[in-house]
Amino acid sequence: xxxxxxxxxxxxxxxxxxxGKRPLxxxxxxxxxxxxxxxxxxxxxxxxxxxxxxxxxxILVVPTTIGSTTAGLVFLEAxxxxxxxxxVVVREIxxxxxxxxxxxxxxxxxxxxxxxxxxxxxxxTVRTGVQVALDPxxxxxxxxx
Amino acid sequence: MELTAEERSWLSGEAGPILQKALETxxxxxxxxxxRRLVPISSSHFVFPPGATSFPTIQxxxxxxxxxxxxxxxPMTINPRPYExxxxxxxxxxxxxxxxxxxxxxxxxxxxxxxxxxxxYGDNVPKEGxxxxxxxxxxxxxxxxxIGARTNRNSAIIELCxxxxxxxxxxxxxxxxxxxxxxxxxxxxxxxxxxxxxxxxIGKKVGRKVPVLDQLPANESDLKDLGAAAAASGAVGxxxxxxxxxxxxxxxxxxxxxxxxELTITTxxxxxxxxxxLKEKDPELIIxxxxxxxLSQLTRWAExxxxxxxxxxxxxxxxxxxxxxxxxxxxxxxLTATGAQIKHFCPLSYxxxxxxxxxxxxxxxxxxxxxxxxxxxxxxxxxAAMLGKGxxxx
Lengths: 145, 394
Known about the structure:
The structure holds 2 protein chains of 2 kinds.
Chain A: E1 2-4, E2 6-9, E3 13-19, E4 24-25, H1 26-35, E5 59-62, E6 65-66, H2 71-80, E7 87-90, H3 95-108, E8 114-116, H4 120-125, E9 131-135, E10 140-143
Chain B: H1 5-11, H2 17-32, E1 38-40, E2 44-46, H3 56-67, E3 76-78, H4 90-95, H5 99-109, E4 133-134, H6 137-147, H7 158-165, E5 167-169, E6 181-188, H8 195-206, E7 211-213, H9 220-233, E8 240-241, H10 246-251, E9 256-266, H11 267-277, E10 285-293, H12 295-305, E11 313-318, H13 320-327, H14 331-336, E12 341-343, H15 347-350, E13 361-363, H16 366-371, E14 375-376, H17 379-386
Parallel strand pairs in B: 2-3, 2-4, 6-7, 6-9, 7-8, 10-11, 10-13, 11-12, 13-14
Antiparallel strand pairs in B: 1-5
């Protein structure tokens, strides 16, 4: 099933979805992995339902991102250290996630696609473990099951 | 987005690769949120503690920007350091080993020597209606809500792009229509609440909406603490308090949008949250001042503690500038004679440095509690704990 999406940063991606119910606090999520120079992107925020989950290379699916305004830099660093998700799908884009993905694309030519999907059916359908594909030309996010 | 001739020339690279990338960043960032133009800003405020060795990317960027020999187009202040430069340790140097070099890069660009999350206390003071390109969520909340200036919740590095170009994209909280309240928060309270606790609960409940609160006898420092907690537990960049904050005073009930949600907070809700946030009742260290204390807050603490010897190691944290002002008053001696110390660093960064994170910390800051293992207690309870009255026992 394909759902229309608005690409904040364009790029193709295909991989396993990791779905969080709550908004992601970016600093709290990635600080520990960055400080310990981890090779995994394990979510370090004990307040979040993805706590302990490795999101490296996955399609991270969360409602939105929140918290400290350092977040754009945290995402940028996670992308450059290779521990970031392959792509992020949100219900509502915020200034901090947009900043991180745009900074990475503009200053370092490293693309982590970010797409905003409003369709309620997508959010009811998508589950951790399913394959998801992003197609920026068609402006869609496909849930492959 | 409609760009001026100068902006187009920067975007095409005529002013060099740094300005090109900075402007492209702002244009793409603005386009995501429907900005139709870039607008001039009067200042910027930089959020990230420079020199963190876990963040080589920002070091690389600052090195490149500094090497290009360009200067910031508007004043830019900076958040506090992660530790006092005179009180370093091997662990601090491991985590922030590039601090001096990073600061030098920033000073070369024209950074204002400030080192505080409360730049509005003298280092970088916006006026009502001014447009800013600030980061630091607590400072954004204060500038928008208490001063009536206008800034989005900009990310780290976006604020630097804004300072390099003197511009920010016009969207979000810069526009009248997005500054009106979208949640009416009724306060059904038996007494004046601890403002940081109230802010924590509001942030949790409203996320990134614009809350409009009932009037409370809050001063500007109270509103600072409320906004900082709401910006941490949620993503509040602007709040209004009826008859108190500038836009609510000017617009009255019209400060609310045509459509808004309603929500009520009671004394019991606050008590429940307070119970949840008090994880430790026997502190080794009490930290007051996240965000940094105002001069009136330092004065108030000094008045209450004068003549006592503190039973627990206690730090009051403020900006270097406010500290200098406080030192010129007689209360400075009263406060330091209690054994309390006045510091200037960022407690959030400080507790990341081992072994500080394992200290049993008590604070009256909802923000510090949110991001660390520190326990929260209202100022009265922290006061009792300082005096060894075991006020934090349940």
